[in-house]
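User: Modeling request: complex.
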Amino acid sequence: MNMFSSCMITALVILTLPIIMSSTKLYKNKLYPYYVKTATSYAFMISMIPTMMFIYSGQEMIISNWHWMTIQTMKLSMSFKLDYFSMIFVPVALFVTWSIMEFSMWYMHSDPYINRFFKYLLLFLITMMVLVTANNMFQLFIGWEGVGIMSFLLIGWWYGRTDANTAALQAVLYNRIGDVGFIMAMAWFQLNLNTWDLQQIFITTNDNFNLPLLGLLLAATGKSAQFGLHPWLPSAMEGPTPVSALLHSSTMVVAGVFLLIRFHPLMEHNQTIQTLTLCLGAITTLLTAICALTQNDIKKIVAFSTSSQLGLMMVTIGINQPYLAFLHICTHAFFKAMLFMCSGSIIHSLNDEQDIRKMGGLFKVLPFTTTSLIIGSLALTGMPFLTGFYSKDLIIESANTSNTNAWALLITLVATSLTAAYSTRIMFFALLGQPRFSPMILINENNPLLINSIKRLLIGSVFAGYIISHSITPTTIPQMTMPHYLKMTALAVTILGFILALELNLTTQGLKFNYPSNYFKFSSLLGYYPTIMHRLTPKTSLTISQKSASMLLDSIWLENILPKSISYFQMKSSTLISNQKGLIKLYFLSFMLTMILSLLILNYHG
Amino acid sequence: MLKIIIPTIMLIPLTWMSKPNMIWINTTTYGLLISLISLFYLNQPNDNTLNSSLMFFSDSLSAPLLALTTWLLPLMLMASQHHLSKEPLTRKKLYISMLILLQLFLIMTFTASELIFFYILFEATLIPTLIIITRWGSQTERLNAGLYFLFYTLMGSLPLLVALLYIHNFMGSLNFLMIQYWIQPLPNSWSNIFLWLACMMAFMVKMPLYGLHLWLPKAHVEAPIAGSMVLAAVLLKLGGYGMMRITTLLNPLTNFMAYPFMMLSLWGMIMTSSICLRQTDLKSLIAYSSVSHMALVIVAVLIQTPWSYMGATALMIAHGLTSSMLFCLANSNYERIHSRTMILARGLQTLLPLMAAWWLLASLTNLALPPTINLIGELFVVMSSFSWSNITIILMGINIIITALYSLYMLITTQRGKYSHHIKNIKPSFTRENALMTLHLLPLLLLSLNPKIILGPIY
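Assistant: Request completed. Predicted assembly structure:
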């Protein structure tokens, strides 16, 4: 018996304590956010012990404790899988969440329901932990749905705003489409393999895993906002910035990629699904990178860049490198969360101004935020020896050297180049040049809650990639030899993107504002996807449900065929057969005649 | 079984002899005590059945429904207090007596061991329900609704009587416990097809099957709160219960007779849930959502596999509690806004935050959030229909999506947004109401910890 499992469980239990405490008086306390933050940091530190042990000795573990139920031949019990993926991801997620919670203590300090906000964040974190450590599909599904619902609640945090509600509903809808795939995969596994346990799924062989893998791919598409189901992610920026930093960059949205990584033992021999994943990822990464180019809302740009990075992770899975994709998840969490926090800092300082055209010159008034934003952007673009480099460069290299779909590869390279372009755009417009914001605003970033939380992630963005990639045990053998030009591709396209974007941005200052071209409109209107899909489909389906389901079928046909027609025929036939026609005079006349007749006859008879 | 039936009968004198200010509290407490007795039946020590007498028995299919029935009476009483506060005392007592009478009939229906006895009680439950709907409904349309309710269910179930007499004639018995050993496979002939139809249609109308469901939204909309609650929670489940009991008689005809009804249910489930998307009337939305959920139960019962039976049983219990809770919430809105139109209640979260929490939880259980028993029920049904035919996953998937959509649409429309001026001076939520919602949620949550007690006899 060692401390591996007990430390892990302790870390998870610590997270639940503030939730349990929320029924006590403590919840009304002003210090509740502080408690939540501290609990998360403790959980992080404790979870580092098993992670260290894992890194040192490579031990993995499964905890299977509470037997929930056995349905005929299928046993369902609560079990945690503490393997490579969960052991690395749990501390990363806890670390990021810890910083974000500290950040939200600053960002949300004026919110009257800040305690509830922290409870929601913590609940989300718990469901995420359930998702990551789940050992069977049912438990995974609990976490999967849990993060979806918490995302609904957190996006719709400012519930008075219609946009926030719409965005929340949109997120649930797209996630729900993915859930259908998940449920289908569950049904398939149950039917064909008679198990939901991951180990048992992986040891059983079946000729054709296409159907469940398609389901899982659909699920991942929904959760990780891949092409087709991607519009919810930029809309989700309606939520508070800490929520965007936590859910929509570092943890929840990577759940889809994480799911595919979990199931890669089934995927690694399935060419069809791999190709599909590759193409899906490539299309996503390009399209969202294009969309990011022309956005003016700083959060939207970061959101699209998240979407683009998620596409890159999908590409990595598509070229059969799940471990690399996982590494990218971990490194991405640091700098993307920090980018969101920096934009949160800017937005808050400028009185809720999100438009980068109205910023400018922030490097003088917000020096710390500027530094972090630049480092985060450089890390995002894969600047050598920053965090992003260690995963992104490897991804591009292994994509370059694998015999993969050349188009998908090319698309990915273009998207990588665009990453540099839109990062430059943020830096150029928000940080450099002359101030374009109102001079009356009092700008102050010197709040320890803000500085410390960003600083922590800043250190992470610089060193985490190095630390993680050098301490984990090597899994897949990286490509050792390659021509020079292939080795330099990733760097070259990025630098190209930087230079191009810088030149273009500089020229914008001297030029007349042209009427937008069609390419510009394509990009700024998000590829026309929301315009088409968010107008046409709901309109048709809602019209169908109103016109045909409700009016035609329910109120007309079903009503007329049974009740109305029966009563109609009854009425008609009864009036037809009945003697009573309402002819009062005639009835009285006949009545009188019979009376007179009978009287006469009876009288005479007597 | 008498230890439940006699206390239930004695509730009636309790109602009439209680002091005017004690009628609600007395009956509610007493009803809760009765429901505690019924919990004992959930423990089915042997795999078979618990025979109480020649007339009554309970097994793991009827015991959860029995517990649900007895659990619901105190909840109904708690829910209708405000609604009846302006009525004279005698009418209050009459109302309570009707609810008690209904519970009595329902208990006996769920535990009857003889099919004819079951049939008589099945019909008898119509009477108190009809009185509740037509006497205490709020609008004149209640008469029409009562008419629809009575005639749809009567017309559906009259052939069943004939069929039962016929079956009794050639089998010699209609005892559930006996016929499962005596049963012969029915030969395939036209008369047997009609026999199948006669046996199943009664329950399909009650469920209700899509196409025969018109009575349900009308009855739900017009009924007073207790009527809606009991209708959604228990009366619809009579149909599922009856179907699960009687399908044992009808093999192997069900194998091919199921197809049209399966299609109709799968189609109707999507149709009714898409109707929900366009409802403006809160109660009507919940009623249509019931139809859509019950379509899943019909599909599950017709597939006839162990998983589908487990799913159907779990879904019936889960839906009973959830939809009853939704009706309670709708009623608490109605008592404040005086309208069932959803948009008039928007922004209520600002004013009644605790009520918003109940709304949230109820909507989440309605859309089958794991690990609630609603999910267990739905998941099992989806699994079994997937194994029956892979293509059904498309329809099931669409239904899952739409269910989530309308549940959250309902939540957002009633709770979120800016509140309007006319709701500024509404009453805060009462302890009674909060207790009512808790008592709905508590079983839901506790059952998710140990769902096997509601998974039916095949578990």
